[in-house]
Amino acid sequence: MIKVAFIGAGRMASAMVRGLLKTGHFSPPEVGCTCGDDPTGPQLASSAGITYEPELKNLLQDSDVIVLACKPQQFNSLNAEIAALAKGQLIISILAGIPLARISSRFPEARNCVRAMPNTPGQIGAGISAYASGHTLDNHDEELVQVILGALGQVVATPEDQLDAVTAVSGSGPAYVFEFTAALAEAGVAAGLPPEIASRLARQTVTGAGLLLGQSVDTIEELRRQVTSPGGTTQAALEQFNEDRLRDVVRHAVLAAKQRSIELAQG
């Protein structure tokens, strides 16, 4: 009997499915998926051992939770029968830019609707997802949300009016880290390193620093101070960052991303 039904079977849905099965909260027969006109659903079903069901009625007839994981632009084209089939179920949407008002309007008979913003490190279980609900979740549904989003990594609850900021910080944030890593590698080449060595050094430095940041009890500022000897090479670089107003650049980028998130939510 399918208890958790995924509408969409792309990378994030696949990561959630594998995380759920790995934790043992659900068994393969309790998880199902469908997809659009592409092979992702059958591929996910084959690799994870879950059920692929092209017919919504069969997929949702016994489910308790529906996870909307299709492309945001596919939201308006979802089969009209899904609203009736979702009666009494919990809806969890990971569709960027689709506000709770639109989700609730599409699923008026759902028992509750949740809007979540995960990020791409969730593909390896190292993500963080923020979520907001249409109305207060009861204990059972709160646990379901924590379990399902927790398959991607950490989970934090926020008011919906903060989700645009969440999108700008953690949703888009991995791209900022990748951009910085690319810049660091390019700078290494400019400093005289072969490209392949510069790339390897930059990637592992960012990866290692991230792991240290995640495991250390020290503040971010303290970790930075631990690398910075007075009058040394790191201080010279940080002074240049300060002169070039790196923190202003990052703030402006995050605010631009937040504004775009607001615009997308308004349609």
Automatic annotation (TrEMBL):
Enzyme class: oxidoreductase
Domain of life of the native organism: Bacteria
The Pyrroline-5-carboxylate reductase catalytic N-terminal domain, residue ranges: 3-97
GO biological process terms held by the UniProt record: L-proline biosynthetic process
UniProt keyword annotation of Secreted present: no
Reactions it catalyzes: L-proline + NAD(+) = (S)-1-pyrroline-5-carboxylate + NADH + 2 H(+); L-proline + NADP(+) = (S)-1-pyrroline-5-carboxylate + NADPH + 2 H(+)
The keyword Cytoplasm is annotated on this UniProt entry: yes
Pfam families: F420_oxidored, P5CR_dimer
Compartment(s): Cytoplasm
Gene3D superfamilies: NAD(P)-binding Rossmann-like Domain, ProC C-terminal domain-like
Pathway: Amino-acid biosynthesis; L-proline biosynthesis; L-proline from L-glutamate 5-semialdehyde: step 1/1
Annotated Gene Ontology cellular component terms: cytoplasm
Record's function text: Catalyzes the reduction of 1-pyrroline-5-carboxylate (PCA) to L-proline.
Family: Belongs to the pyrroline-5-carboxylate reductase family.
Official protein name in the record: Pyrroline-5-carboxylate reductase
Protein's organism: Cerasicoccus arenae
